[in-house]
Known about the structure:
InterPro entries: ATP-grasp, ATP-grasp_carboxylate-amine, ATP_grasp_subdomain_1, PreATP-grasp_dom_sf, PurK, PurK_C, PurT/PurK_preATP-grasp, Rudment_hybrid_motif. GO terms for molecular function: ATP binding; metal ion binding; phosphoribosylaminoimidazole carboxylase activity. The protein is of the alpha+beta class. It has three domains: 5-88, 3-Layer(aba) Sandwich (Rossmann fold); 117-179, ATP-grasp fold, A domain (Dna Ligase, domain 1, 2-Layer Sandwich), CATH 3.30.1490.20; 183-377, ATP-grasp fold, B domain (D-amino Acid Aminotransferase, Chain A, domain 1, 2-Layer Sandwich). It contains twelve helices and 18 strands. It has helices at residues 13-25, 53-60, 75-83, 92-99, 101-110, 124-133, 162-166, 226-243, 277-280, 285-293, 326-332, 361-377, and strands spanning 5-9, 28-33, 44-47, 65-68, 87-88, 118-121, 138-141, 152-155, 175-179, 183-193, 199-201, 205-210, 213-219, 247-256, 261-267, 307-314, 337-340, 350-358. Strands 10, 11, 12, 13, 14, 15, 16, 17 and 18 form a nine-stranded antiparallel beta sheet that branches.
Amino acid sequence: MHNPRVGAIGGGQLARMMGDAAAAAKVEFSVLAEVAESSAKAFASTVGDYNQLSVVERFAETVDVITFDHEHVPLEVLHSLEAASVSVQPPSKALAFAQNKLKMRQRLSALNLPMPVWREIKTADDLTEFIGSVGGVAILKTPIGGYDGKGVRVVHSVADAKDWLDNIYDFGGSLLAEEKVDFVRELAQLSARNTNAEFAAWPLVETRQVDGVCAVVIAPAPNSISEMLERCEQIARAIAEDLGVTGVLAVEMFEARDGRILINELAMRPHNSGHFSIEGSATSQFEQHLRAVAGLPLGPTNLLAGHAVMVNLLGTGDTNTFVEHFALAAERHPAVHLHAYGKAARKGRKMGHVTVVDDDLDFALAEANAAAAVLLQGN
Length: 379
């Protein structure tokens, strides 16, 4: 009997970090990458277009389980794999809700889970009526595509969305409108569920955004009462079980000023808010994801110290990949764990991250931010 062979579609940094965790998870790991010079090129056994069924079928023949670095593989491709008895984890029936925000809202509403007030928008009149019902300002989203703030805009009138409404069939014929939540902070609940329905959750984390992109993650979320922690874990479990999610599930949430906990979005794969777990948890989200999709027992998710802080390294232009400053950052801040993704530099792109694990939250935050500044500035 060989170790389970897990193949990930997508060659980004998540696949790269899955590959790094494969030995601990006791799986053989390979990647279907979109381009030869991908972040996960060290694990790429196949390079090709995941939109082409023939490419994906050839890759599937080399592994026991197919999983994902992203949610963009067409469902019809996955349906064909599943019809041929390929193990797709998470399955297409679950991924459908991660690929389409409107379907996600509809399904979670049926489960009576807490969400912002929302409405499906098909016409300009629909949008005008909704904006009026939520106080004159709303969040408008494209149901498909969009991440890190893309495909999302604040609207006060139909004029703010004219281009989307004029091309609404590019988005499947509908848009998603939501109330603009007055929130205190953003949270994320990471969990995992394996193919045997075993469930485990990490501590709730606080995420801090800059221009719609996650900049800082703090684990556990500071000043969280036990009732909130229990409620967020219950929400994640309810979603995972009802939708049949396997692997890591990230539930992004708002803590509203009025006390509500509201689900924002879902990801069914390792997630940026879980990178702290590489050094901060007994089992990282990447090892856990591989265990889960391969049907192996899940690992413990306890923190290894009082706190873990992760700071993203976001590209500032076309030259700084941060790697050239790693030695200096490591010398000045030896408590910091440094990660580079091996990606070409681009403004706003996630190029890497730093993590500090310590019992003192103020120290962890200060060290992580200081190291990030050295990596950014080189001095």
